[in-house]
User: Fold these one by one.
Assistant:
Number 1:
Amino acid sequence: MPIAPVQLQEQSITPSRPSTGARLSCQRETTRHKCSNPDCLKKALSRGRCFEHGGGVQCANPECNKRAQRKGLCRGHGGFKR
């Protein structure tokens, strides 16, 4: 008794989700927004602004205008680990 041939369906070899890895990190890096200040060419940290124009987190010390590194403090005021 002869066996009837079975027709196979074609399957897509492309993944349903984008792969994670180096490619994704490169895409993320190129899509960073610029500072909302029209004269500034730096990348935005938060609130659409670079650090100089009010983005990011500043040191909690009221006399300091440096960027916070850890625990809300800059390196000079104890915001680093020895």
Note: The helical segments are 22-30.
Number 2:
Amino acid sequence: MELENYADAVEAFRQTGNYEQSKTLLTYCQGMLLIQEANELEGKGYLYEMLGSLKNAESYFQLLSGIEYGESQKLLYYVQARQFEAKGLTQKAIDLYAELMGICDSDDRYLRLINGIVIQPVTTPSVIYNKLTHIAAQVYQETHTYDGPGSSYSKNDTIIFPDMFISIVGQSGEWYLVETTHDQYLIRLWVPKIRVLRKEPTEPYVFNSCVNGIIKNSTDIYYGPGQEYLITEKVLEPGTPVTVIGEDGMYSLIEFVNETNQLPMCGWVTSVNLTKK
């Protein structure tokens, strides 16, 4: 399928989501749109965010690979190869690119890697956490998210749904800048104020420098600093090394490495379950 603008295609197929073929095409276009997004982020040097887009694209192509739709299996391998490349696993990336000639820019990436031209491996997020007032909030109406405070800004692929818990970290006019999670990554997006119900404010303290720590008791990970936030599917076991990058009352904002894909992730845990070094 040749489409120049996958963003338009995604929106078009959403309108006809009752049909199986449309659902399949929507999934395909969402994956391709995320590849485009990853390319743009790579061009800007936002490699940590690029990894997030590639990981999200991987989930869409995994859905399609089960029904053997088009080149979805090769596209799945392609986004996996891109992640290997970004994490410095050069030989794994080369091996996959060698099998994917003609898929996206696999040819160029293969030649670049065998000639020793590599990107700086991603080890830490490019996002810097500042001291901001976090206001716990709950979504009460499904809404799209935007890159800036207004519908004139680009619309994101991320949709927030009723009953989701989020944090408000800024505002401009009739728009909130909110912090939420996407594939277990903390991201910030703009939404209309009318779609969000504010709760009581909390003020987290964020360290000027990171503090190393270790998990001492098996603990859940929360999307925000409190039990009113949803719990992620991830559980940290005793002995897991973490970096503490912020605090809010009895909760600590930590960064850790996901053992499954070796990507850095963020989340909130109760401070009593970790020890600072």
Note: The domain at 134-202 is CATH 2.30.30.40 (SH3 type barrels.).
Number 3:
Amino acid sequence: MFIGLLERYAIQGTLFTSFDRKGYREQAIRAIAHVLRADAGA
């Protein structure tokens, strides 16, 4: 599941890298955690 999540973000334009580059590490972690919760509930 987690590998698929990483692949999904890579396909969507490296969301985490984009956030990290701008210094929004915390927001990136929150966004990933939100998707993880959504996947777990699906």
Note: The radius of gyration is 10 Å.
